[in-house]
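User: Phosphatidylglycerol lysyltransferase C-terminal domain-containing protein, Pseudomonas syringae pv. japonica str. M301072:
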Amino acid sequence: GLRRRLSAAWMLTSILLLVGAVLSILKGFDWEEASMLLLTACLLLTFRRSFYRPSRLLELPFSPVYLIASICVVGASIWLLLFAYQDVPYSHQLWWQFTLDADAPRGLRSALGSAVLLVVVSLTWLLRTARPVIKLPDAADLDKAAEILKASKQPDGGLVLTGDKAILFHPAGNAFLMYSHRGRSLVALYDPIGPTQQRAELIWQFRDLCDVHHARPVFYQVRAENLPFYMDIGLTAIKLGEEARVDLRRFDIDAKGKEMKDLRYTWNRGGRDGLSLEIYEPGQAPIDELKVISDAWLTGKNVREKG
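Assistant: Predicted structure for Phosphatidylglycerol lysyltransferase C-terminal domain-containing protein:
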């Protein structure tokens, strides 16, 4: 936990060191051991800011009701064990009796094993880093992203306007990237949107955000010219597919030759089936209608949106 810079591990270790120092004094005034524990605790207190990662310990519902319920469960378990074996006198030898009819020793060992297992599982769960909290953008954030998008030459960033992804802005306010989470990963969609000189800084900013939450940084569908930026933060490029780019100034579906034959067939078949093509200006796309179609397709395929 301390190696992973977890705030809960820092808190738990500091408390144990202080308690250990007090107990060292009480058990026989062992000031040497107590001094070492206090010195270690002071060092941890000095470097408090280095343990910045949140963990589940700070999210547990520590309330009077929760505490009373926990005490009742533990107390009831102990009472049931004592009640069931009240006619069996206790001795240290009970722990080492392994016979078919030795129910009391088996009960003691089971209780101890359950307690140890509970402690291990609880500590493992408590010291895990908290899942990143994804805050969806409000209207002001979307307006700010739209202004940055208009000033850029990256139309694929228009998906930010759907509002279903978190937005990370550059401190200068002239660049952003959109992301969401998947398991223990934070996944950014496309390269950062904005001036080229801000992209590297924003990529590092996203890397720092992932570091705070102990999450894996992932960038999906980035351009080759930006790969050095991602290599700098220790990522590896994996090819998942290709992107088709068409020069519209030279494109002609009616051009003679075999190159356009298959495309012409698909186009004509679509026309016969009642399909049509319509191009909308920026900001005029029928998002609500497209969402209905998308939701119907997802329902028919029994899948959910991946974006």
